[in-house]
Fold this protein.
Amino acid sequence: MGNQNPSVPPHAQSRIAADKGPTRGQHTGGLVHDNTRHTTRFTVIGNHLAQHRELSLLAIGLGVHLQSLPKGARVDIKALTVRFPEGATRIAAALRELEAHGYLRRPRERAPGGRIVTRTISCNQPTAGRRHHHADAPDRPARPATAPPKPESREDREKQATCETSRPREKRPPRKPLPAVPRPAYPAPVLLRAATDLLADLRRHDPRLLLSACDTAHLAPGVAAWLEREVGPAAVRQALTADLPPEGLRRPAAVLAHRLTAQLPPPLPFRAPAAPPPVRHPLQTCEACDRAFRAPDPGRCRDCRTDLQEDA
């Protein structure tokens, strides 16, 4: 009965218990847990995320935060920058890490109204086709074939920039031209200038609508067509910036060009100019009978002029 299989441990032992050895009860360093059992308001997080070997600390913390949120919570970059002190660049890099390792999916779907929206799906287990990254795994899985997160230190950024400039650049396919926009019937310079100023001011209302000079010159005639149809600048700005997708826009100028064309209001109906009001002359005093009458110049009233003609 005293014989045991030496190749099979009777039970899993913690690292702390194994390190104690003969000096059990004396702590020589390392982490000590003081745990209290949770009964409400807790989330079960797998060690494959909490102790991931390749994710950054920011990505692990963001993944834990996403898994603890209820369904329907806003998790776009703008909402996360309001919630946490990290900037939009670091949060976006952490989201890309989670997406590359299968803890996050962000598919694009078309809403019933025709608008393209991005769905954010948090996965408590990595998506199919990816191996789990346990802290106690003996072998490290291969890194996914995605771009690594941007380096944080200045030396790493300079080193990466040097490598990128030394390697030959691949030719990118030419970008598609922007959609055509409506044109005003009378493109006056003052009207085009007002349209250009309105487009340049859009970035103050939404930083994602930062347009280049070329895109602004392409969109200015479309805005001028709206202004020509007596649509106020505030109404044009509202039509261009309302109900934009919460995620980043790949090409804001294309979205604005589509809205300028699809939502162009009809011209106002023609209205004939109203008849001018009758001329009301000032009061004058008759030179013959001192009667008051209205006339453009001083003189005699109508009766005195009639008597004068009869005497003649």
